TrEMBL record:
This is Pyridoxal-phosphate dependent enzyme. Pfam families: PALP. Residues 8-305 form the Tryptophan synthase beta chain-like PALP domain. The keyword Transcription regulation does not apply. Its cofactor is pyridoxal 5'-phosphate. PANTHER family: 1-AMINOCYCLOPROPANE-1-CARBOXYLATE DEAMINASE-RELATED. Keywords: Pyridoxal phosphate. Belongs to the ACC deaminase/D-cysteine desulfhydrase family. It comes from Sessilibacter corallicola.
């Protein structure tokens, strides 16, 4: 199934973002539109999942993975399963059978089997015992970790970095822009899988900044280092994870963020997801404000999709 799957991956635009706020302060911003990679399954999830399948010699009978009630990853898995004709099973944290979220309704309609588990079972999900139990119940199953966080996921996200590097190089040649400072690539981090892949796909004319969507995620830097060391041990790219822009924690929002998202969407007609990419743009604004990103500097922000998750917030249901 390998080669046919790779043909699903196409190039997404790297667009200059005419963001008044940044422009007025002399900062140039581009946006890599991974939200446009696939209409059914947009964003970084697409790269992680497709690559997980590319790496397999045989088509599995079941694709199994794990996620929360609004999980982009579970939603993407259901879409990819439907597209490829493979049965999917979603192990969901918490009991939502009588109260399905819009994400889970989509998954069920796409044919995914949903299994709801307690916090305790959830904690065991990566244990050998639990995984064996799953394999016993679903023969010829391929089990993908939560968030697609494995080496194949990193390889898939390598393609995002590689695409940015190629597009940027042709942009520089076309416009004859000369500037010695590294181009700053910003993206959201959950497990850090996407960031690790992006780092590996770039070269040292770029530096990479990850904005953690989670509070107190102390192992993120370690996880990214390990993934990078595995795929691109000689990588010389400077990178850093920033832990101070989660706005209170995973999926937490503030009035200021909501206002920011609405203004941004009105200005650019690009939808943002409040959990990941909106916080990245919000962080970039804060860093321009504080003089950390300065006049003359160039920023590329990766839009990693996740728009389906907006349905968890009443604030956005009627907007744009
Ligand atoms: C929309 C979106 N952006 C970014 C991320 C972060 O990706 P990663 O887990 O690879 O760090 C995720 C998932 O966690 C996501 O769903």
């Amino acid at each position: 199934m390998n080669d046919s799957l790779l043909s699903f991956i196409k190039s997404t635009p790297l667009q200059e973002l005419p963001w008044r706020y940044a422009k007025e302060r002399g900062v140039s911003v581009w946006i890599k539109r991974e939200d446009l990679i696939h209409s059914a399954c947009p964003g970084n999830k697409w790269y992680k999942l497709i690559y997980n399948l590319v790496e397999r010699d045989q088509t599995p009978d079941y694709l199994i993975s794990f996620g929360g009630p609004y999980s982009n990853h579970i939603h993407a898995l259901a879409q990819v399963g439907k597209l490829l004709g493979i049965t999917t099973v979603g192990i969901i944290r918490g009991f939502y059978a009588d109260n399905l979220t819009p994400t889970l309704i989509d998954c069920r309609n796409l044919g995914m089997e949903l299994i709801f588990v307690s916090k305790n079972t959830w904690k065991q999900k990566d244990s050998e015992q639990y995984q064996l139990k799953l394999k016993d119940s679903y023969s010829n199953a391929y089990i993908i970790p939560e968030g697609g966080a494995n080496s194949a996921g990193v390889k898939g996200c390598f393609l995002i970095g590689q695409s940015i590097r190629r597009q940027w190089n042709s942009l520089v040649q076309t416009n004859e822009r000369q500037n010695c400072s590294p181009v700053q690539v910003y993206l959201a981090c959950g497990t850090g899988t996407t960031m690790a892949g992006v780092i590996c796909g770039l070269d040292p004319t770029f530096e990479v900044h990850g904005i953690s969507a989670l509070k107190g995620e102390n192992t993120l830097t370690q996880a990214i280092s390990a993934f990078v060391a595995e795929l691109e041990p000689a990588s010389k790219i400077k990178w850093q994870v920033h832990h101070d822009y989660h706005l209170g924690g995973y999926a937490k929002i503030t009035d200021e963020l909501v206002e920011f998202i609405k203004c941004f969407e009105n200005e650019h007609q690009i939808l943002l997801d409040p959990v990941y990419t909106a916080k990245v743009l919000f962080a970039i604004k804060a860093r321009i404000d504080r003089g950390i990103i300065r006049e003359g500097e160039r920023v590329i922000v990766i839009h990693t999709g996740g728009i389906q998750g907006r349905r968890g917030y009443d604030q956005f249901n009627n907007h744009v």
